[in-house]
Amino acid sequence: MRVIAVDGPAGAGKSTIARLVSAKVGMPFLDTGAMYRGIAFAVLRDGVDQNDADAVGQLARLTELVLEDDALWVDGADATQSIRSAEINSVVSVIAAHSPVRAEMRDQQRLWISNHNGGVVEGRDIGTVVFPDAILKVFLTASPTVRANRRVEQSGGDAVHIAESIAQRDHLDSTRQDSPLMPAEDSVVIDTSEMSIDAVIDVIAQLFKDAESRQVQR
Length: 218
Ligand code: CDP
What we know:
The protein has helices at about 15-25, 30-45, 55-60, 85-95, 100-115, 125-130, 145-155, 160-175, 195-215; strands at about 5, 30, 65-70, 70-75, 75-80, 120-125, 135-140, 190. It is of the alpha/beta class.
């Protein structure tokens, strides 16, 4: 399957960059973080215990997620704005650590990519677990200060509080048992701290071109 995997921690520039790469290479974009956020939304909506892996897994299987461009619909309700709230930020990494939830999200992500004939997929475990055969895997990082500042520029809020929230999510995401946040062995790690968006896009587009021509030669 023709997949570009874009993984990395919060605020490393994944969303902006993966969207622009998708436009540049003409492949659809899948935001897998929005899917986990959609399940967190359903958990809060239904008052399910966020620590109960089986109950949240069951809810994940029953919840209908529809991703359309930049919008997310959860059981027919537009959740595009609500999934970016501080409340969802504090729940999403807890529910994303549950194996039954991850199994369901992985299935849905693979189906989405198969229905769309490939894509640029943004997440935490795309290159390591969901699409280990991706044509290109990039892992975007940036210093914690840069990441927190980017989030403040994007959505406002208090810098200290946002830095804490990101650090807490990073910790949960990288220490969980099931598909923790980490670069795949064959990924290209790009530190975006001092790079412009255009420069990162150019690097990825070139890597993709090289990877595709290697595939053709095989
Ligand atoms: O946009 P941001 O980087 O802040 O986060 P996101 O991509 O929307 O992902 C939100 C959360 O979903 C992450 O902190 C992870 O806990 C979880 N997630 C995951 O576990 N696996 C993925 N493939 C994508 C997101």
